[in-house]
Design brief:
Blueprint lengths: L25 H24 L5 H4 L2 H19 L3 E3 L9 E3 L14 E7 L7 E2 L5 E9 L14 E10 L4 E4 L8 E4 L1 H9 L1 E4 L1 H8 L1
Parallel strand pairs: 3-5
Antiparallel strand pairs: 1-2, 2-3, 4-8, 5-6, 6-9, 7-8
Helix pairs in contact: 1-3
Length: about 210
């Protein structure tokens, strides 16, 4: 028997006092997260119905995070009132203020939000460079242990953070000759990011309060 669980966002786990720039609403985050849940439910129902692996199990972690980030970017742009997707290929940030840049496209802009997703608890993610920016990090959990695989729990968002960070909040990561240099928030930078949490699972809230 194939088990399919439709994940839903618990709106009671959002931070009503969080600072939200660019006229964003907590509802925008809730709807974007639900869009991702619905997508995975629909796709996995189809795959499991054909006897195939779930999308969660087929994708490599980096590919999974990249896809979720892209989906959240598109969905937030759809639901939000004042921000749109940056139409410049590989432009920064992912979301920009509507009408701020010609054709809503900018290679490297200051007015917007960079979207990241990761499986790393706490929200520390690698970036391509240290910048002054609004950064939003979605932390998610995937079940790869439950057997049989058809009984595995759906992907779940456990943490969402949004904060204005600056260059000094980052530390540079040394890489080999063939590696791409990246930057990650320092301990102080991560603390700043986590101070303005948007959403935390019950487990995360209990750990924070404890």
């Amino acid at each position: 028997m194939t088990v399919r669980i439709r994940q839903t966002v618990n709106r009671g786990l959002f931070n009503e006092t969080a600072e939200l720039p660019y006229s964003l609403r907590l509802k925008d985050f809730e709807m974007a997260m639900q869009d991702v849940y619905d997508f995975f439910y629909d796709v996995n129902a189809l795959l499991l119905g054909k006897g195939l692996h779930r999308l969660d199990d087929m994708l490599r972690p980096a590919a999974m995070s990249g896809m979720i980030s892209d989906m959240l970017t598109a969905s937030l742009a759809k639901h939000a009132r004042a921000i749109v997707e940056n139409s410049f290929f590989n432009g920064h940030p992912d979301l920009i203020v509507q009408g701020r840049y010609p054709n809503n496209a900018v290679k490297a802009g200051e007015h917007g939000i960079e979207i990241k997703s990761t499986r790393k608890k706490g929200g520390a993610v690698d970036t391509h460079g240290a910048r002054d920016q609004w950064m939003c990090v979605f932390v998610y959990h995937t079940d790869h242990a439950t057997e049989p695989a058809s009984h595995r729990l759906p992907m779940e968002f456990t943490e969402v953070y949004l904060a204005k960070v600056v260059v000094s909040d980052f530390r540079r990561n040394n890489r080999g000759e063939l590696g791409t240099r990246t930057a990650t928030l320092s301990a102080a930078g991560v603390a700043k990011l986590r101070s303005n949490w948007i959403f935390l699972s019950r487990d995360q809230l209990e750990q924070r309060d404890g």
